[in-house]
Amino acid sequence: MAQTRSKGKDMRVATKTFQSPCQDETLTSDPPVLWIPKDELGVAEDEIAHTRETYNSIEISCDGASLNAQGKLILGGQPPVWRLK
Questions:
Q1: 43: in domain
Q2: Domains in the chain: how many in total?
Q3: Which residues pair with 6 in a beta bridge?
Q4: 67 falls within a domain
Q5: 3-state secondary structure of 22
Q6: Model pTM?
């Protein structure tokens, strides 16, 4: 933590050093993927179509996730773009 003086007041400034600005996780991480469950009424498919049409940079999928008749989530696979880290 660095100390600076400004008009007689002590101010503490937190600094974070990067070797390169391109190493910042917000710049290098993959964009998130929205994973919503498929439903009997087709709301998920409508939302996927609307989201893809409106926000072409957002990935959205209902593959491998669904809701049963009681509204419980059923997972039938891995999330989209899932990978072991």
A1: yes
A2: 1
A3: 9
A4: yes
A5: helix
A6: 0.59
- Take residue 59 and report the two structure tokens written for it: 């990935």
pLDDT of 63-72, one tens digit each? 999 999 999 9
Question: What DSSP designation does 31 have?
Answer: P
Range of the domain at 44: 31-78
The pLDDT, as a whole number, for residue 1 is 47
The position carrying tokens 């669904």 is 66
SS3 content of the chain, % helix, strand, coil (to 5): 20, 25, 50
Instruction: Give the phi and the psi of residue 45 in degrees, each rounded to 5.
Output: -65, -40
* Cα–Cα distance, 67 to 73 (Å, whole number): 5
Question: What angle (nearest 5°) sits at the alpha carbon of residue 54, between those of residues 43 and 71?
Answer: 20
Confirm whether 41 is domain-assigned. yes
Residue 22 lies in a domain: no
Measured between alpha carbons, how far is 2 from 6 in angstroms, rounded to an integer?
A: 13
